[in-house]
UniProtKB/TrEMBL annotation:
Name the UniProt record assigns to this protein: DNA repair protein RecO
Keyword Transcription regulation on entry: no
SUPFAM superfamilies xref list: ArfGap/RecO-like zinc finger (SSF57863), Nucleic acid-binding proteins (SSF50249)
PANTHER family according to UniProt: DNA REPAIR PROTEIN RECO
Function: Involved in DNA repair and RecF pathway recombination.
Species of origin: Limosilactobacillus coleohominis
Stored Pfam families: RecO_C (PF02565), RecO_N (PF11967)
Amino acid sequence: MTRVNELFNGVVMQVRDYREHDQLIKFLTDKQGPAMFLVRGARRKNFKMASDLLPFTYGQYVGWLSKDRLNYIISVQESNHLTHIATDINANAYATYLLELVDRAFDDGKNIGGWYDQVMAALHLIEKGRDPQIVVNVIEVQLLGRFGILPEWRHCVICGRTEKVMDYSEAYGGLICINHFDQDPHRLHLDPKTVNYLRFFATLNLKKVHEIKVDPLVKRNLRWALDKIYGDQVGLRLKSKRFIDQMGTWTAQLKNWREK
Ligand SMILES: [Zn+2]
């Protein structure tokens, strides 16, 4: 067993009570991806790191990291709170889903390269009040590769053309051009705008994004397309995602009720 006392950047993904006085806290770390920490005494009154270890807190921590066992936090160098995400139900729902998806996409204890910065950029955009659905859609497109789906977004899978009118084909695992629409009757029948956004998202660096403006119809189509791809090809239905879907239903019902 190797245990090294080291400095790492991390964001709190989940907090679970453990035994009488302790907590199990899962971080996404820059050094070892998702990592579970046992925090002794976290449930005691006057626990001195209490505010550094709340959900959606991020910062620099010192801990004992081990690749195959529980990790331990030794001290906190600096911590920050994502207060909008912690208090706004919509932002919170999307950020929770984002982190659950990331947790599923990576193995515990393994370096995730540039992904840590990309996830933090996503959280900061949601924190700043940017459209959380679109931020999460970008990550969903980019994580497909982690789930073993590597869609060809650059050109038609069949002929290699890059022309404007394309559609997504699950059977072919990527885009097909208008000349080959007849090859897959079950293509997703997406409108060109939605397809262009999906292609754009595949390589988008969220650190360079400031404003987000996508019209409501395209947003609905993006949501539909990604739900379809995640349902059919990835086979993933997360609880946090179902909550977002239910929230959409409640909002629609409330709107109907108010308009009556
Ligand atoms: Zn083609």
